[in-house]
Structure formats: C-alpha cells, structure tokens
C-alpha cells in the first residue's frame, strides 16, 4: 500500500524501500517457547467429588440400616402386614360408628 502511494507521488522506489527497511525490519524475531518440565495437574471437578461422597454416604447408611434390621434393633415402618392391620381396624371402627349412629 505504501509503495502504491509512493508511485502516485513519483518517489524513487529504491529510496522508499531503504526507508521502509530501516523503520520496519522485515526479519521477524523468533521467541523461543520453553516446554514446562513440571507434570500436568489433573483437575477433578468439585461436582464429581460431591457425588462420590454422597454415594459413599448412601452405601454406609444402607449397610448400617440392614445390619440393624437383621439384628432386630430397627423395625421397618413399611411392612405390608401393618398396613393391612391398620386398614382392617379402621374398617371395624367405621362399622361400629355406623352402628352407634343408627341407634
């Protein structure tokens, strides 16, 4: 672009080229990049660590509850027998209430 502007002004090409070379050296300086000798660090996301800790906690609680229930120290509230007994008791109570209301 500079050369075309110089031609328009009818400047000497050789003189222009020497001025350009003195102001803007054409040789690029090479910057050496040193490779790091230190080993690369492995980064583990915090979400992964939290999930692992949560999974370990769930496993520990499950094993503990199973051991306690097998030993008889922990009773489950979700047994089918208890639910059936409670529903049959409620039905009997409702029948008794209807009988007392009729009288």
Comma- or semicolon-separated keywords:
single chain; about 100 residues; elongated
Structure description:
The protein is mostly helical and 103 residues long. The chain is built from 4 helices and no strands. The longest helix has 26 residues, at 46-71. It is elongated. The N and C termini lie far apart (114 Å).
Topology (elements, then pairings):
Elements (H helix, E strand, L loop, with lengths): L1 H7 L4 H11 L22 H26 L8 H23 L1
Radius of gyration (Å): 44 Å
Helicity range: 55-70%
The backbone outline, from C-alpha atoms, is elongated
- Number of helices, where a helix is a run of at least 4 consecutive DSSP H or I residues: 4
The largest β sheet comes out as:
none
Report the count of strand segments.
Answer: 0
Give a short summary of the structure.
The protein is mainly α and 103 residues long.
């Amino acid at each position: 672009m500079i050369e075309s502007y110089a031609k328009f002004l009818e400047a000497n090409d050789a003189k222009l080229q020497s001025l350009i070379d003195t102001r803007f050296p054409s040789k690029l300086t090479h910057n050496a990049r040193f490779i790091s000798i230190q080993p690369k660090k492995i980064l583990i996301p915090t979400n992964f660590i939290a999930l692992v800790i949560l999974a370990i906690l769930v496993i520990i609680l499950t094993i503990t509850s199973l051991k306690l229930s097998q030993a008889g120290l922990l009773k489950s509230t979700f047994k089918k027998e208890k639910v059936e007994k409670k529903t049959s008791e409620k039905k009997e109570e409702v029948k008794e209430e209807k009988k007392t209301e009729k009288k």
